[in-house]
Write a structure and sequence with these properties.
alpha+beta, three-stranded antiparallel β-sheet, 3 strands, 12% strand
């Protein structure tokens, strides 16, 4: 063990002297190592949060996601990554919901960007378009206000929106009078 410790000590001293002679290379090497460690930590954090921790929902083990598979997209380079996670149209969702017998309920949601005009100008917010069944399927309820109604959950239904808790705090100052206000979207 003493010989090994002596060899490691000599190697460390040699590395320090070599780095001291070339400071530009040392800075580049340390930057590259730091960047690699940061990327690895970021990837681990996302993987841990998405794959290993359960969803913060009641009965999370009973919630699943189903996508529409589009094998024809494999040959389209700009869409190839989505071939097995394709969007589901509203008519397809309504058909699935009407004929399925395996699930308690089914919901549809899709990510979307919204241009929101307010007192401080227009800004782009990222959110979701969702059916009225989404919150009940997830087992959650709005903190304030109500969920969408079945009449609003159809083509031509009343245009309504729900804001996230964070948006309520940051854009509306936690004001409960926000309920019923008109919001100018898109």
């Amino acid at each position: 063990w003493l010989a090994l410790a002596d060899t490691v000590g000599q190697d460390v001293r040699f590395a320090v002297r070599s780095f001291a002679r070339r400071p530009a290379f040392t800075v580049a090497a340390l930057f590259t190592i730091g960047l690699g460690m940061g990327a690895a930590t970021g990837i681990y954090s996302v993987t841990d949060g998405v794959l290993f921790r359960p969803l913060p929902l009641p009965d999370a083990d009973r919630v699943i996601a189903v996508w529409h598979v589009h094998p024809e997209l494999r040959g389209v380079p700009e869409r190839a990554a989505m071939w097995d996670h394709g969007p589901v149209s509203l008519p397809e969702y309504e058909d699935w919901r009407a004929v399925q017998r395996s699930f308690t309920d089914v919901a549809l949601y899709a990510g979307a960007a919204f241009a929101v005009r307010g007192d401080h100008g227009t800004e782009i917010n990222v959110g979701y378009e969702a059916t009225a069944s989404l919150l009940p399927v997830l087992g959650v309820a709005p903190v304030m206000g109500r969920n969408f109604t079945p009449d609003e959950d159809r083509v031509g239904g009343a245009p309504v929106t729900m804001v996230s808790y964070e948006t309520w705090i940051t854009h509306y100052g936690s004001n409960p009078a926000v309920l019923g206000q008109t919001v100018d979207l898109n």
